[in-house]
Amino acid sequence: MSESGTSDPLMHAALRLEQAVERLADALSRPRAQEDAVPRTEVVALSARLDATLARLKTALRDQAAPDDEEE
CA triplet 48, 51, 56: central angle to 5 degrees? Predict the structure, then answer.
């Protein structure tokens, strides 16, 4: 099954996150006029949110990959 057609919600979330990071990297690579610059506090806040989202996704992926002892 293709990546865009996956029915696994965690894999779909990972794919969407990867695409968002690519869009951010693309946007950051374009030159900007000083008046269009994003305030540093907003960049720091967005970075913290991204780090937290990545941590939650990694935990969810790890939990999904681990054997579920509760069902035995």
Answer: 125
